[in-house]
TrEMBL record:
Subcellular localization(s) per the UniProt record: Secreted
Family annotation (Pfam families): Cerato-platanin
GO cellular component: extracellular region
Family: Belongs to the cerato-platanin family.
Keyword list, A-Z: Secreted, Signal
Protein name in UniProt: Cerato-platanin-domain-containing protein
Stretch forming the signal peptide: 1-19
Source taxon at top rank: Eukaryota
Organism: Russula ochroleuca
Cross-referenced InterPro entries: Cerato-platanin, RlpA-like_sf
Length: 158
């Protein structure tokens, strides 16, 4: 009887093992499509700080890490999302310039959309106005517990 029970359990667990993909397995068809990946949250919250330089409409893009954006956007106010701009942890690879992000303050559920055009040492460094929008009108040194998601560039008007 014990052999029969072991055999049945082995069959049962082998079906479960086949249903759960391991690292490096081929992505199953029910996985998110490339468009859906923009809506997936990054698992760990990040820190958001503010910098008054991003509030200056006449700030020059050529003086940021994303100077390659200068031909289309000479000044900060040329970005459709201005003043919701700033720096991000994933810059300087120049391919990450002009990325559109949705930041959500997990303490008050306020969200903003920003365009990143500069480097931030940790998390995001955004304009003071955008920071206040994210933090219910309050300006504090930094926010913790902020979820971030990459969203399509069209959301930022790019």
């Amino acid at each position: 009887m014990i052999y029969f029970t072991t055999f049945i359990l082995a069959l049962f667990f082998s079906q479960i093992a086949r249903a759960v993909p391991a690292c490096g397995d081929i992505i199953p068809p029910e996985s998110p499509t490339p468009v859906d990946q923009f809506n997936l949250p990054i698992p760990a919250p990040t820190v958001v700080t503010h910098n008054k330089k991003y509030d200056d409409p006449h700030g020059e893009v050529k003086h940021t890490e994303c100077s390659k954006l200068y031909p289309q956007h000479h000044r900060f106010h040329n970005f459709p999302s201005f003043p919701r701009i700033g720096g991000a942890f994933d810059i300087p690879p120049s391919s990450n310039c002009g990325i559109c992000w949705k930041l959500t303050n997990l303490k008050n559920n306020d969200s903003i959309i920003i365009t990143t055009l500069d480097h931030a040492d940790h998390g995001f460094d955004i304009s003071e106005e955008a920071f206040k929008d994210l933090n219910g009108g309050h300006l504090v040194p930094e926010l913790h517990h902020v979820e971030y998601r990459r969203v399509p560039p069209s959301v930022c008007g790019l």
